[in-house]
Amino acid sequence: MFAIIEFVVRVVTDVGRFLDIFVNDLILGAGDPLSVLAIVFGMTFIGLASVVFGYSVIGALFAEIGVKLPSFGGRGRAE
Question: What is the reported pTM?
Answer without folding.
Answer: 0.55
